[in-house]
Amino acid sequence: MNIRPYKASDYSKVYQLWELxxxxxxxxxxxxxxxxFTQMNPSFFLVGEIDNQLIAVVMGAFDxxxxxxxxxxxxxDPKYRRHGYxxxxxxxxxxxxxxHGVEKVHLFVERNTxxxxxxxxxxxxxxxxxxxxxxxxxxxxxxxxxxxxxxx
Length: 152
What we know:
The chain has one domain (2-146): 3-Layer(aba) Sandwich (Aminopeptidase), CATH 3.40.630.30. It has four helices and seven strands. The longest helix is centred in the middle third of the chain and has 15 residues, at 85-99. It has a five-stranded mixed β-sheet, sandwiched between helices. Strand 3 (45-50) and strand 4 (53-62) form a beta hairpin. The chain is an alpha+beta fold. 29% of the residues lie in helices and 23% in strands. The radius of gyration is 15 Å and the shape is globular.
């Protein structure tokens, strides 16, 4: 698998991959929002291709202190599943985080996806029991999601 940084022309394929992966998508996943994210994190938003077919994506972010992982997805076709592609793209993201001095990386996994938690635990992640996630949405009318059964 060839892993490279995301580019704007990938958007429709990436969005389709997220939909195929049943991720919860929302107003923060519009082209405009993704472009803003990409400008802030050009080294950490990665896609993976095989024979010019986009089959993997992960959005990594760095806030100057911590790294974050969002929207990891692998194409659901059996020829791409269980071949280590998710691990490969996550290893590349970890490598990029390390070269930027990131010491701690966080991610959010929806509770109703035990298979996703199992994957992350298998590659070295652990569940934090000392923290509780909280959110604040300044404009709840502008923010929305389209719940399809979310993965990451």
